[in-house]
Each structure stands twice: as structure tokens, then as C-alpha cells.
Design brief:
The chain is mainly alpha-helical. It contains nine helices and two strands. The protein has two domains: 214 residues; 33 residues. A two-stranded antiparallel sheet has the order 1-2.
Length: 249
């Protein structure tokens, strides 16, 4: 308790906390988009529950990973060399996570554009299995993003309580935003393709990062923001045309 009071009296600690919270929330956007697309394929009565359980378990996972931060830092040490690349455990986890995202996004794009889709794996008749699969995939992807964000956070502060507080606040923000974002994506079908494009891009950058080709996150989020802005203009245009048609009817 005395140590926490000492930390609370240090202005630099509050600056680090605010910065970490902002970073965790921004990085959480990727997670939320994935969670929204995934849970929207569940039966309506299970969607909100899956999001809450998935994010709650993700919070527990992140706190457990923070408790083993020494082990996490050790994941950045080179482990093997392959095709001229020195790969650490972190690199291999990022590559695996990136491949999973690329596969998932590609599969969902195919499902959305296929005029004669096959039976979906999230069919209501398989609700119990689909629910468990959704939770598992949420945790799987969160582990990838968690390891990456924790390694980044270590360079910003050495105080473990600050990291714990930032993660808890960020996940609470994600929980509050999960349902509105999912509803928005569900109500605007064109957003789904845009979001899948985001996931495809994020998966590719994770693979590149794992291979040592770091793409600044600012470029990625700037591209996402610009695409979202253009789609927002398209949505306003469609809404205006619909009102004009209704007025002329």
C-alpha cells in the first residue's frame, strides 16, 4: 500500500498511465472489430454474452501475462534462424496470429461474396459449439495482441501496477464499446467488408512485424481512419438518396 501511495504521488506515473491507457484502447480497436464480426455470426441471444465472456477472459489472460512479465520479455530473445531471419518466440507468435487473421478475414470475405454459400459453421443448430469456438478465437487473437502490447508497454514504464491499471481500464472501455460497435456493423453491411479489409491489413502487418519488417502503427491507423471517413461519406450519401426517393414517392 505504501508503494502504491508513493507511485500515486509521482506525476510521471500518471503520464505513463494515461499514455498506456490510450495505447491499449487504440490497439484494442483491432480486437473489437474482430470480436464484432465473429460474435455477429452467433444467434442473437448469445452475441452480447459471448462478447462479455470473451472480453472478461481476455482481461484475465492479460493480467496473467503481466504477472509473468519477465517471461514475456524473454520471448524477444532470438531463438532460431530461418531463411536469413532470426526469429524469437514473440516473432513466431505474431506470424501465427497474422496468418490466422489473414485466413479468417479471407474466409469471411469469401462467405460474404459467395452467391451460393455452404452451410456456415456458426449455424444456429450448432449454437453450443459455435459459442465455444467464438470464445476460443477471441482468446487466441487477444493473446497475440497482448504479448505485442506488453512488450511495447515495458519500454514506457517499469511499474507493474501502472500496467495492471491501464489494462483494466482499457478492457472496461472495450466492454462498453463492444455492443454498440457490433450493432453498428450489423446495421451497416458495407462496413463488414471494410472491417474485414482492416483485419486483412492488420494480419499482414503482424506477419511483417514477426519477420522484422516493422510498419509504424500510425500509418495503419491513418489508413483505417481515412477508409472509415470515406465510407462514412458513402453512408451519408446513401441515406440522403433514400430520403429523396421517399420524399418523391
Amino acid at each position: 500500500m505504501e508503494h502504491l501511495l508513493t507511485l500515486a504521488a509521482m506525476p510521471e506515473v500518471w503520464v505513463a498511465l494515461a499514455t498506456l491507457i490510450a495505447m491499449e484502447v487504440v490497439l484494442g480497436i483491432d480486437n473489437l472489430v474482430f470480436i464484432s464480426i465473429l460474435t455477429n455470426k452467433l444467434p442473437p441471444d448469445q452475441q452480447s454474452k459471448a462478447r462479455r465472456i470473451g472480453l472478461a477472459l481476455a482481461l484475465i489472460l492479460r493480467l496473467l501475462l503481466l504477472a509473468t512479465i519477465t517471461w514475456i520479455i524473454g520471448l524477444t530473445e532470438p531463438l532460431i534462424e530461418a531463411f536469413g531471419f532470426a526469429l524469437s518466440w514473440r516473432d513466431m507468435i505474431l506470424i501465427a496470429g497474422g496468418l490466422f487473421l489473414v485466413w479468417k478475414a479471407t474466409r469471411e470475405i469469401h462467405h460474404n461474396v459467395d452467391p451460393d454459400p455452404e452451410t456456415d459453421q456458426f449455424d444456429k443448430k450448432k449454437a453450443s459449439m459455435a459459442f465455444g469456438a467464438a470464445i476460443f478465437q477471441i482468446l487466441l487473437l487477444d493473446m497475440v495482441f497482448s504479448i505485442d502490447s506488453i512488450v511495447t508497454a515495458v519500454g514506457m514504464t517499469t511499474h507493474l501496477p501502472v500496467m495492471f491499471a491501464a489494462v483494466i481500464v482499457a478492457v472496461c472501455v472495450m466492454m462498453a464499446a463492444a455492443d454498440p460497435l457490433s450493432k453498428f456493423i450489423h446495421d451497416n453491411p458495407t462496413i463488414v467488408m471494410l472491417a474485414l479489409g482492416f483485419l486483412l491489413m492488420i494480419g499482414t502487418t503482424l506477419i511483417a512485424d514477426g519477420l522484422g519488417f516493422h510498419v509504424p502503427k500510425g500509418y495503419i491507423y491513418a489508413a483505417m481512419a481515412f477508409s472509415a471517413f470515406v465510407e462514412g461519406l458513402n453512408m451519408l450519401s446513401r441515406k440522403r438518396r433514400r430520403k429523396l426517393r421517399e420524399a418523391g414517392a
